[in-house]
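Q: What would this chain look like folded?
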Amino acid sequence: MTVIRQQDFIDSIADALQFISYYHSADFIQALADAYRVEQSSAAKDALAQILTNSRMCAAGHRPICQDTGIVVAFVKVGMAVRWDATLDVVEMVNEGVRRAYLDKDNKLRASIVADPAGKRKNTGDNTPAVVHIELVQGDKVEIHIAAKGGGSENKAVMEMLNPGDDIVEWVLRQVQHMGAGWCPPGILGIGIGGTAEKAVLLAKQSLMQHMDMHELKARGAQNRIEELRIELYDKVNALGIGAQGLGGLTTVMDVKILDYPTHAASKPIAIIPNCAATRHVHFTLDGSGVAVFTPPGMAEYPDVEWHPAEDARRVNLENITQEQISQWQPGETMLLSGKLLTGRDAAHQRIADLLARGEKLPDGVDFTGRFIYYVGPVDAVRDEVMGPAGPTTATRMDKFTEMMLAQTGLMGMIGKAERGQSAIEAIKKHASVYLIAVGGAAYLVSKAIRSAKVVAFAALGMEAIYEFVVEDMPVTVAVDIQGRSIHDIGPAEWCKRIGMIPLHPR
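A: My prediction, written as structure tokens:
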């Protein structure tokens, strides 16, 4: 009879989470490299180069691929012949492993989990609790699939109860177009079909844990209806032309995974969950012999891609930026920013809104006049770092604050990731502002442009505090210009037309 020791289980969970924080799996690296090789869109190719360069840097430096180090999801299959040498239950052991991984002094990971989600939303400080699914199975081993799921991609999950005759492909294409770029493509689509509402969502999440094999599947051909569906969706989603970071291009998804389950004759439950360019998951088995061992990809498995700024990139000094200068910027133009900028995301914006609503001044050190705000929640620095990985967060969450910020604080422009909603674009156009994007999935690379960092307000918010960054040659792309023209509309429309397989429906 196999005996699983508590310490082995906890250490394996902690080691697994540290491992996936800085290593992409070899199949994912290969898929990214393939996407880079075939990409014809210069903007998308630049984004892919940043993601690949970032991946190799993180592997070498043992630092997070993305500043959003995720919510931990664990699928634990426990063999019914297993005995436990433990005083904690399985969920408690998973959470202890999470706690140790996220507080590791050599590679501290960002704590993103908030308790009382419908109320105070207070950060738990150690990224616990995890979401744990336990299944009893035949056997004498414990099998674990564990992932650290980013919030930007998780927020794009959709579940719907279709009628039995509804078209799955049509539904998926509609959902992907509505997702925009906030899930940081290119990535993977996980789809669950059947069962009940909650079963379809679980199937979608579990499908994302599978090995990427789309190129092999297409080479040998489909052997069943699910494989036919995977190939059809892969081709048609990519034909939308959304591309890397929503900039327009050939690769939006690198694989489509589908799991199904029998369902009621009156129902067709379906769920879709995307995995982003910072896909993080690993599988391991405990057999009583000790802790799990994880083998990293070799450096030779990374393609020979080294991102460098484009020769025609516009260099911008944030210290003396003028309205006349930003009026010349065009959607899709690449830039390198230098100078001071302030940061802020959901919680900071809400505090600013509350202060202004009460007629109070903003905190000392927070003056947005003529300045840019960067939507980011960075990872804490370790060793000799100025700042840990500091990639952008999804800008659409700040849309409801955009008119207030532009009208009442003197803010000149914003930096984030993904598209903006119509209300934000109207505010940008009204105030002759601009919106820039940094590459999601290149957080460590972006952090190397930060020369100094300090908290200037709302320190109690942790990673959501307002920082002042001094940056040098921070790479960004113009996403929305002062006329309200968006690269997230222009780019996909152009590339959908080029690809020419199916029309791009309006968002």
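The mean pLDDT is 96.
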